[in-house]
Amino acid sequence: MVETVRLVLGAFINIEMWIMLFLNVLVLTCIMKSRLYAKKDNAVYVLTGFNIFCEICQIILHIIYIGPAIISGSWLFDGQDSTGVTVAAVIFLGLWYLGSLMQILFATNRLVVICFPWSALFSRKRVVYIIVTCCCAALGMVLYSQLLSPCCRITPDPFVYSYSYLVFPNETQNLSMYFVDLPLDSGTSLFCGISYIALFVHVHKVGAADERTRTRELRCCIQFILMFLTYTIAWLTFFVYPALQLREHAAYSVTLIVLLVNCGVNSIIYLALNTEIRSAANELLHREIFKVPKAHAGRSNLT
């Protein structure tokens, strides 16, 4: 029975990985080929393109190691503390930390663009500098939490279909969790939650010059709120489920499944709502898969 559950869950998770990878590659290719990132007045495509690239790297790591490890029911290396698992864990958590910082950037971008449209904070040049700063910050955090902290580090765990902390002998205080993981995850969700609530209230009360602009701004809020929700659910289940001491290991797979959705939700939203991306995808696939109203051709839903 256990092996059947493992195979079914493993197959589902691996299929999910490939679907999210395809969607991310499709949207990133659309952004690059259409040169949407080159728009001087729309730095959000620079943020989105970099974010999707990071998510592609995360998914590839899962396809190469975590997916096969779940199906095989083994570490594929010499245990949880082996060099191979450590390398995979460092890459995974580094990309997660970077994704957390990108969530903050998206929320700040929406707040500035909608509430303070005259601000030049998110010019293309400044966005590049901010992204480089985020990369350095993520690198510093992952080096501390995974390599320098005396205890403990997060690793992929095929036996719970998710991730778990590797606890070192004779260490009782999880410094990585208390000083990096929980503060970053909860702080990111808190900041993004407050930002999106403020945005929604601002758009609803203040309104815009015309109904079309107001609708577009509300749609933008909804797009990034969905990203924020999947991110928050992923880290909450990681910390809450072990505290509940669930006996069924398959229950912990929710964390991995939601994390993979979080990796692809940006692309899903763009393909569902963004006219420029939908039009570029049709051209790339040489088929009219996504309906694009002629009156809105070439117009972006994100400003």
Automatic annotation (TrEMBL):
The entry's keywords: Membrane, Transmembrane, Transmembrane helix
Tagged with keyword rRNA processing: no
TM regions (residue ranges): 6-31, 43-65, 85-106, 127-147, 186-203, 224-244, 250-273
Pfam families noted in UniProt: 7TM_GPCR_Srx
Gene3D superfamilies assigned to the protein according to its UniProt record, in alphabetical order: Rhodopsin 7-helix transmembrane proteins
Single GO cellular component term: membrane
Protein's cellular compartments: Membrane
Entry-linked InterPro entries: 7TM_GPCR_serpentine_rcpt_Srx, GPCR_Rhodpsn_7TM
Domain (G-protein coupled receptors family 1 profile) ranges: 23-270
PANTHER family: 7TM GPCR SERPENTINE RECEPTOR CLASS X (SRX) DOMAIN-CONTAINING PROTEIN, SERPENTINE RECEPTOR, CLASS X
Protein name in the entry: G-protein coupled receptors family 1 profile domain-containing protein
Taxonomic lineage of the native organism: Eukaryota, Metazoa, Ecdysozoa, Nematoda, Chromadorea
